[in-house]
Amino acid sequence: MMTKNISILLLAVLLSACQGKQEAPAKVAEDPSIVTVAPELLSRLTIAVVGAAEMAETLRVPARIAVDEQRVARIGAAVIGRLTDIHAELGQRVKRGEVLASLHSTELSSAQLTYLKALSQEGLQQRAVSRAKLLFESDVISAAELQKRESELLQAQAERHASQDQLKVLGMTDGDINKLGATRSVHSLSSVTSTVDGVVIERKVTQGEVVQPADALFTVADLSQVWLVAEIPEQQAGLIKTGDVSEAEVPALEDQRVKGKLIFVSDTVKPDTRTVTARMAMENPGHTLKPGMLASMLIHGTPHQRVMVPVVSVVREDRRDYVFVQIDAQHFQLRQVKLGQENAGVAPVLDGLFEGEKIVTEGAFHLNNERRRKELEG
Fold first, then answer.
1. How far is CA 288 from CA 62, 72, 291, in A?
2. pLDDT digits (tens, 9 = 90+) for 339-350
3. Distances 327 to 47, 290, 333, 359 between C-alpha atoms, Å
4. Residue 219 dihedral angles phi and psi, to the nearest 5°
5. How far apart are CA 162 and CA 155, in angstroms?
6. Which long-range contacts (CB under 8 A, 24 or more apart) does 205-210 make?
7. Which of 154, 174, 214, 248 is deepest in the core (most CB within 10 A)?
8. What is the pLDDT of residues 294-308, one digit of tens each?
9. Residue-wise pLDDT tens digits, 196-222
């Protein structure tokens, strides 16, 4: 009797196993994301086990090329005057000391006249002191009279120094002042000269215009080095610091990558944008990087382990990314994944796939066409 019961129980287990085996294909057939692959298509697929690798995610932050503020000069006139000649044009390369414009100034001629008067007065007082010394030695005048003459000479010298300094403020050099003293010829011509080697990137004057010392007439910049200015979201601000070597991509240069050093990271967050300003210095010997160009600053995160998939294995539909995961020898499932930034033909998987699973690397496009064909056929 016991033998009979065991036989019946064994038969029930076998039947249950057979039924379980029959249900799996039915479930596979019902799932539209699962594809049953024919042998001829299977031979065209390349299947690989998903592995993990250490990588640092790269954040792209909008940026722009700007002039290096330490290599730019905003140049104006030293005196009030009317522009008579303009020698520099936009885009022109100039040297330090080169004349950019000329102007006539009555202020300059008045200051020169004051200097010549002070110079003459100093000469008179020097001669007066010389005579006073001779008279004092001959007991003709007292010591008090000699001291008075010497005091007047000191006053004349102070006035001459003051007028000479005023001429320097108005743009005259020591050579110009010495020439003025030698020729005694007053002129009203003043020159606007460049204070740096560079390119004229801005000109705000026209001929005949009356200008003031506070007016910026020209902007000259040395473009052999430029800045990349970016606004870093406060969540990523901790990934960068002053002195780091960073990279930038410039679309105008066919996404060429340029390396530079971070020279400034702001200590404060802008309350309206919740960003931190960062500046990167970049060498620009050929002037290919032009102020105003749009760019992207690349911020590399901390390296960590990530599941990686080749980009060729990714199927993109409806702005989503998918890969085909192997279920068994003939069945593959289209599974949505969330990917990070692509780098060197591979992309990190942020969600949707685990290390050790098998996916279709080459042939995913053909497999997806097969899935869509069967889906259309119902």
1. 19, 18, 10
2. 887 877 888 898
3. 12, 54, 7, 9
4. -120, 120
5. 11
6. 205/83, 205/86, 205/101, 206/83, 206/86, 207/83, 207/84, 207/85, 207/86, 208/82, 208/83, 208/84, 209/82, 209/83, 210/80, 210/81, 210/82, 210/83
7. 248
8. 999 988 766 778 889
9. 999 999 999 888 899 988 889 999 999
Reference 41, options 317, 334, 376, 364; nearest CA is 364
Q: What was the pLDDT predicted at 270?
A: 93
Tokens coding 167: 């001429």
Which CATH number is associated with domain 31-55+304-377? Answer: 2.40.420.20
Q: Is the pLDDT of residue 248 over 80?
A: yes
Give domain limits for the chain.
31-55+304-377, 60-69+222-300, 76-220
- Does the structure show a pLDDT above 80 at 337? yes
Which CATH class, in words, describes the domain spanning 60-69+222-300?
A: mainly beta
Instruction: Read off the pTM.
Output: 0.58
Instruction: Report the C-alpha dihedral over residues 12, 18, 24, 29, rounded to 10 degrees.
Output: -130
- Do 288 and 58 meet the contact criterion of CB atoms below 8 Å apart? no
